[in-house]
Amino acid sequence: MFSKAYRLKSSAALKGSEAKKLRARLELAFPHISVENLLPAKSNVTHLKILTHGGVPSIVYCVDKQPKFFELDGGQLVPTLYTLWSTPEILPYFTTHEGVLPKLTNGADLMLPGVVPLGVGLSMYGHFKKGQLVGINLTNNSSAVAVGQLARASDELYMCGGHGVAVKILHLFGDKLWAHEPSLLQQIPMVKTKPLTTDDFPALGASDHQRKTPKAEQSDHTDVPQAVTEDAVPTYGLESSTAALSLKEDSEVDANRATPPSDEPTQETLLKNAFLAALKNNGKKLQLPLLTSNFYRLYVVPEATGQIDLKKTRYKKLSNFLGEMVDQGFLVVREETKGIDKILSVDLEHPELVNFITDVKISDCSGGAAETPLFHSELKEMYIVSDVTAAFFTKLNYKRGEGIPVGQVKKIVREYVSKHGLVNPQTKLVKPDEVLQELYGNREASLSEITSIITSKMEHSYQMCSGKDTSGKPQIQMSLATRSGNKKVTLVSNIEAYGIIMAELIKLCKQGAAASTTIVKLPHQKHEQLQVQGNQVRFIYTLLTETYKVPPKCILGLELAKDGKKKKK
Q1: CB burial class (10 A; 0-12, 13-18, 19+) of residue 29?
Q2: Nearest residue to 277 via CA among 333, 345, 388, 357
Q3: CB of 368 within 8 A of CB of 184?
Q4: Are 363 and 403 in contact (CB under 8 A)?
Q5: Mean pLDDT of 260-270
Q6: Do you find a cis peptide bond into 289, omega within 30 degrees of 0?
Q7: Which strands form 459-466's sheet, in the order they lie side by side?
């Protein structure tokens, strides 16, 4: 429904009365969910009227700029993925395999062979009616990746014999509705599925007995004291002893409550971890020499997991802390004038810094930059750095929880092996060091085997990434042509192969070059050309290399640019 761009007809904020009507509709459609969770009272709700690519009118409700619900033809409210991620229990789920997600992204519906059965017999696909809204998740991640409607009732799905459409997809991860607000984009949250235990596979015929026996045992235990009290046995001694025991237990519970757990990090630990994270994540970006006050304010404080109070540490001042870091070999600091210190160099190869593990922040995972996106997004298969593999990847400056493309893992392993010289020249196999020994033991293995072992210990996922990869793509060709007399125009070909959004590129050309810019369709060709009025070869080259970060070797035609020097008469 939203796989292609839709046209926005109008956008307006909901009035108070309209918001109340929407709340009533949500309460009627989803009675098992609190309306406050779906539509907070003080949130800004926007009403968008859109026209889909297929010509179907629809209404989208955005809460604080994020699309939360949309309407179908009959006025039925459908939650978006952002709603399912914040309130997972709003819809029932159908589970599919990981390899099905790319098929869904290409526009396919969820077919019955791709559905993981919920049970056996008639309950294999639940007990739902035709048109029931369902969420779709993956076998390795319980977070929703799509929203759809059942094509048939559950009993009809069972009678289909595993053939046909199961769910008609309405909204999918990576579609235009997901990308409605670029500043609030989110990746699929990683929520591991609950592993199966022996309790999920009871012995045949023993499930009912196991459910009944605890209650029976409880009733038997509760009957014993009644039988004892009916006898003529004096109980005042027992009552006094049990009362004394209960007082002791209450005092122990109160003492446990009074002593808070000591899991919270101290201020020194918080400061040291923030300092190491600042160097780990931003060490190569630091513009040295750098004032120590700016380093602390711009890099250390944002990396802290809690509020840092230097006065509550044993250092009392920033200079004392940095002095200790200098003694440990992390920094080189020089005092220029009294009270003004600058960082001259940073040792990024310090053993403690290399082995320090950093975590990916939520803002990094969301992928939501406040700027307008310049590239089209595409679905990429990823491996997520897990706790087991974090010690290995942190030595190559990867964070725990960071996504790595599938084809990049082997390159990282090869880089690590060559950097530490682990190849045995006789057997051509890799000799494991301490880090690799923790992953697969003390034995020699090939590069491919090590890669497969490491990926098996990582979490498999999919993420929407901008198409900035330039490998295997045609070069961008710039040329000059003459139109209507002696007017020159600049023609640029093969831009769309780099995933560049043409509408944004046209806007930047109009603003930067102050020239008319259009898209030209060539006869008998599928590709389009960008046409800019005048000789704008130099401007387009600078725009592509600096703003879009296209490598200069991928652009041809720079020799056609103007010299820029005016001839003297």
Answers
A1: middle
A2: 357
A3: yes
A4: no
A5: 72
A6: yes
A7: 403-405, 377-384, 459-466
Q: How far is Cα 2 from Cα 22, in angstroms, rounded to an integer?
A: 23
Of 147, 138, 134, 148, whose CA–CA distance to 190 is shortest?
138
Structure-block tokens of residue 13: 């904020």
HSE (CB half, 13 Å, CA atoms) of 150? 22
> Which residues, other chains included, contact 147 with Cβ-Cβ below 8 Å and sequence gap of 6+?
78, 79, 80, 81, 84, 91, 133, 134, 135, 136, 169, 170, 171, 172
Between the alpha carbon of residue 488 and those of residues 534, 535, 555, the distances in Å are 5, 6, 20
Q: Which residue has the tokens 């997809």?
A: 169
Q: How many CB atoms lie within 10 A of CB 69?
A: 23
The fraction of the chain above a pLDDT of 90, given in percent, is: 39
- 115 near 96, Cβ under 8 Å? yes
Burial (0-12, 13-18, 19+ Cβ within 10 Å), 222: exposed
- Give per-residue pLDDT as tens, 335-385: 888 888 999 999 988 989 988 988 876 545 444 443 456 666 677 888 999
Q: Please give the Cα distance from 293 to 333 (Å, whole number).
A: 12
Mean per-residue pLDDT over the chain, rounded: 82
State the Cα–Cα distance between residues 83 and 88, nearest whole angstrom: 8
Choose among 84, 88, 54: nearest CA to 69: 84
**Residue in the block written with tokens 């997004």:** 377
pLDDT single digits (tens) 465-524: 766 566 667 889 999 998 877 889 999 998 888 888 888 889 899 988 889 999 888 776
Whole-structure pTM value: 0.63
